């Protein structure tokens, strides 16, 4: 592994983002219609290998249903506006109209200070479940023990535990930490947990019994974690490292496969095949879906990092509108910039390199571009 000397007393690994790599075409090509991009986790099969990020600007009960009907998985944020307010629409409208960065942060903190209502958790999950689509919902590690029973009782199919950084071993002198291994063992539903960014952290999360591991810190275009905490994930390297942990955990566990889900860095359609090429089984998409005409945020985007009462690590951003959710996911595209038809682009990328299945495509050749050759 290449390390660079930062100074006499510190060395660091060279790491790469999706922008730093490119997929290499092979001698064989295929018809895009003959390519399968279906993905299965536990007992659930999806025609589109993605999860919509549990962010209030992206997923409402209605959009979760729509995404499920299209073949994806919408993940509802159970700590957001939908579980704090009976009717969050006036607040969503207010947030979409608030463009001043300083005022937006203060107002978001005020809005999200309202308590989470346990009865609304069951109500929102039931709303999605009654539509017949696979139902997924997310809590942070800090809220999981408190609300997990309500989530499971409501009939969630897939439970997502998502935080900026999630570890299998959290040390706290102030409170009893969540024992992930025991918690997952006692649940009757598959659990996806993250984020993580290293081989070691991922391996420990896999040993908890998780069905999937989120790679990255989430938040994407709306987070400021690098500026606030000095922490950043070069996603290509992070996904490849976690994919290596998956391979070694399969040997260790006697063949148990844990899905690797890239959570962050997938801002354009070309980033999606790069994530799969680095070893991801699926991706979590946030900001591209926030640009949908039918998104709850109406082109505005923010995450739970932005509403933290002490150290907000995100902000409200105006991404604009590009098209409907369907156009962004499956086309047709009316723009040449990679903001639409993400899964049409994945099919074509796989077809151009001669692959017909996602797991095969993980073996595709990639190159690393130096700074002067980056687009």
Main attributes of the structure:
oxidoreductase, IMP_DH-rel2, NAD, alpha/beta, 16 strands, 375 residues, IMP_DH_GMPRt, Aldolase_TIM, 8-stranded parallel β-barrel, TIM Barrel, two-stranded antiparallel ribbon
Describe this entry's structure for a reader:
This is GuaB3 family IMP dehydrogenase-related protein. Belongs to the IMPDH/GMPR family. The protein is an alpha/beta fold. The chain has one domain (19-168, 176-373): TIM Barrel (Alpha-Beta Barrel). Helix content is 34%, strand content 16%. It has an eight-stranded parallel β-barrel, surrounded by five helices. Strand 8, helix 5 (141-153) and strand 9 form a beta-alpha-beta unit. Helix 1 packs parallel to helix 4. Mean pLDDT is 89; it is low at 170-174.
Write out the CATH superfamily name: Aldolase class I
Mean pLDDT: 89
Strand order in space, largest sheet: 6-7-8-9-10-11-12-13
CATH architecture annotation name: Alpha-Beta Barrel
> In whole angstroms, how far apart are the ends?
26 Å
The third-level CATH topology is TIM Barrel
Reported for the largest beta sheet, the result is: 8 strands, parallel, barrel
Global geometry = globular
| Number of separate structural domains | 1
Q: Flag low-confidence runs.
A: 170-174
Helix content: 25-40%
Task: Find the structural class using helix and strand composition.
Answer: alpha/beta
- The DSSP helix count reads 14
- Rg estimate, integer Å: 20 Å
Strand content: 15-25%
| Total beta strands | 16
The CATH class is identified as Alpha Beta
- SSE string, helices as H and strands as E: EEEEEEHEHHHEHEHEHEHHEHEHEEHHHE
InterPro entries: Aldolase_TIM, IMP_DH, IMP_DH-rel2, IMP_DH_GMPRt
Domain IMP dehydrogenase/GMP reductase: 15-299
Keywords: NAD, Oxidoreductase
Protein name: GuaB3 family IMP dehydrogenase-related protein
